[in-house]
């Protein structure tokens, strides 16, 4: 018998996306990563001894228990069953996560926890700009990679299904996240520094997870509409239009500060509340920009 060939690293990534972190046996579905430790094992569908290869189509990710069980009862029927697990998994995952949410708030609840966790992994172990080949960090990064890929798949499905809850400008950010997640899944780790589509951090701004101070406040009349609304609702606290313009108000009983240059988030809030109004976005944005630049110059 020949030695078992190893599985290509870029093929391995695809299994994590396929399984989204759970055993592929539909009756088991145990979580395969606990506190960064993986209990996932690659199982052959057609056994290696019977000529099964290590291609994506002939392998699936199982927990240790299910792997042992399938290996000890390998019959033609069990091969057919494993094929079926693999075939049905994708449809099941899409069905499970491709749910339409009634509001942006519900959508936010569904995705922020996952985005938060991925952010933590990236910040702790992701390649550093000034030291991308740091090997100690890279070893840890590889350990968490499966979790990261599994985690990306869920928001990818959820956000694609719920783009109607976002303004056009933010849908573009979702599109680049989907492109990034797909590229991340299939590219080899050697190439990761040259990735074309990096994770668009502006996605985190849409959900208020992280600020993205990327642009001018989107629309002056929208801001006026929003402030008038807050005053009417007795939720307005303050509006500061100095060089770091910000609006402070009460949201669900809690005082929040919205930085007006945190554009994806501001855009989301204004669009959702119907405050954007009929005034063309660009002309107002330009007016805002010159106003802000004026502040910067007089500083
Ligand atoms: Zn299992």
Mean pLDDT: 81
Radius of gyration: 24 Å
β-strand percent reads: 5-15%
Please tell me the total number of domains: 3
Query: Termini distance?
Result: 77 Å
Identify low-pLDDT runs: 295-299
The class by helix and strand makeup works out as mainly alpha
Major sheet strand order: 5-6-7
What is the number of E strands? 7
Q: In sequence order, what are the helices and strands, one letter per element?
A: HEEEEHHHHHHHEEEHH
Structure annotation, total helices: 10
Task: Supply database-style keywords.
single chain, 299 residues, mainly alpha, three-stranded antiparallel β-sheet, two-stranded antiparallel ribbon, disordered C terminus, binds zinc ion
Topology:
Blueprint: H1 9-19, E1 33-34, E2 37-38, E3 40-44, E4 59-63, H2 64-72, H3 76-97, H4 104-125, H5 135-161, H6 168-186, H7 202-206, H8 220-232, E5 236-240, E6 246-251, E7 254-259, H9 263-272, H10 281-298
Helix pairs in contact: 1-5, 4-5, 5-6
This protein binds zinc ion.
Residues 23, 25, 28, 30, 62-63, 65-66 line the site of zinc ion (ZN).
């Amino acid at each position: 018998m020949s030695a078992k060939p190893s599985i290509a690293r870029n093929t391995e990534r695809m299994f994590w996306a396929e399984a989204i972190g759970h055993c592929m046996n539909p009756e088991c579905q145990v979580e395969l990563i606990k506190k960064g430790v993986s209990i996932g094992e690659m199982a052959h569908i057609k056994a290696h001894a019977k000529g099964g290869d290590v291609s994506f189509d002939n392998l699936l990710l199982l927990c240790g228990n299910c792997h042992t069980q399938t290996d000890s009862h390998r019959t033609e029927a069990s091969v057919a069953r494993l094929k079926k697990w693999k075939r049905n998994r994708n449809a099941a995952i899409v069905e499970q996560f491709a749910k339409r949410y009634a509001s942006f708030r519900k959508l936010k609840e569904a995705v922020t926890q996952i985005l938060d966790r991925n952010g933590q992994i990236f910040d702790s172990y992701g390649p550093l700009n000034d030291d991308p080949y740091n090997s100690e960090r890279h070893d840890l990064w590889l350990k968490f990679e499966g979790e990261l890929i599994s985690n990306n798949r869920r928001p990818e499905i959820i956000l694609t299904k719920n783009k109607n809850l976002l303004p056009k400008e933010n849908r573009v950010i979702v599109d680049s996240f989907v492109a990034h997640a797909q590229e991340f899944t299939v590219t080899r780790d050697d190439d990761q520094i040259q990735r074309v589509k990096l994770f668009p951090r502006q996605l985190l701004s849409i959900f208020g997870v992280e600020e993205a101070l990327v642009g001018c406040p989107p629309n002056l009349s929208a801001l006026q509409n929003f402030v008038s609304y807050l005053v009417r609702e007795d939720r307005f606290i303050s509006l500061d239009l100095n060089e770091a313009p910000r609006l402070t108000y009460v949201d669900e009983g809690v005082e929040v500060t919205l930085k007006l240059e945190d554009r994806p988030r501001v855009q989301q809030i204004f669009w959702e509340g119907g405050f954007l109004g009929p005034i063309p976005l660009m002309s107002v944005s330009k007016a805002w920009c010159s106003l802000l630049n004026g502040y910067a110059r007089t500083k």
